[in-house]
Specification:
This protein is an alpha/beta fold. It is built from 10 helices and 10 strands. The strands form 2 sheets. An 8-stranded parallel β-barrel has the order 1-2-3-4-5-6-7-10, surrounded by 4 helices. Strands 8-9 form a two-stranded antiparallel sheet.
Amino acid sequence: MSMPEQPIIQPTQFDPEDEYRPEPEPEPQPPSWMDGSLRIGLHTSIAGSYVNALEAARKLGCNALQIFSASPRMWQGGSARIPEVDAQAFRERRNELRLGPLVVHANYLINLASAQRMLQTRSIQAFHDEIVRALALGADFLVVHPGARGESSSGQAISTIVESVKQASKRAPMGGLRILIENTAGMGSAVGARLEEVGEILAGLRNLPVGACLDTAHLFAAGYDIKTERGLASTIGQIESSISLENVPVFHVNDSKTPLGGLVDRHEHIGKGKIGAEAFARILRHPRFGAAGPEGLTGRAFIAETPIDDPGDDRRNVAMLWELAGLHEQAPEAEKGFSMLTAALKKKISENRKAEKKRARTKKSQARKSKAAKGKPKKRRG
């Protein structure tokens, strides 16, 4: 029996077009807040939950916000991480509300300039924890005060700050987070009152994602005359030469209770302080300070840290910023009557302050009596 003939198989022709080519990764899209629109926000409270800060920003008519990631006046025990379930809920709600940028302000106790080794070590650890929490929340910026130099020289303090930030950011995948060094008012031995000092810190950290956050009240108290048109032009020139406006993605917009060059950090309601409404209108409408090109920086944010003395102060300050920017008709709608400070909360705060003052007076009185008793000569017996 003969075998059936097998069909002759022609050798496969290689077609270069058949080669597998993986699709290129899509270019990451810029966040929604980098759309060229003005970004105005307020420091909102995380009391109750992190999501509450987002809801407060929405109700106050903000499209950006700043928060603390933990108590700003206490050292956190352990690593003080944020539970992932809370961080995820925060990130998802923020995306829904399209709020941004998100700025986290670091703990006030952190002193990156300290020459005291123990305090510096504690500050480095605390700032590292701030970075970790900011990353968990999906923050865009982390603002930190440079610290106080004590008996050190300015140059020594700047070197210490640079080394402290480098140590704190080690083993932290920074991703899209950027560290911002905030200028100071010049009180005591605080570093960063001069723009040149902030610029030197940034130069020392050039291999890290860093920038500056400039506070208007601090600038004014440190002697930069941003109140007048001529003074603002001069200040812009100094910012450009020492830091570069491209490295200032966030401004803290606060009026000042302190006069020009007073070197004291005291924030006031927008338009009610020594800087004044006219100056803030000039700042918010200045093309170099804008949130869009070609002269401005896309996504730049103006965050108020103004006091809340009475219910509604927070909402009124945000509304004032939108009005002075000439964009009140385009501002997000605020919820009528909402404030982070309620009448009941104000009463509770007032009672707590009175109680604290009473305790302080009692303690002082007891100390005086104790001192007087020790100073009395002992009576001789017999």
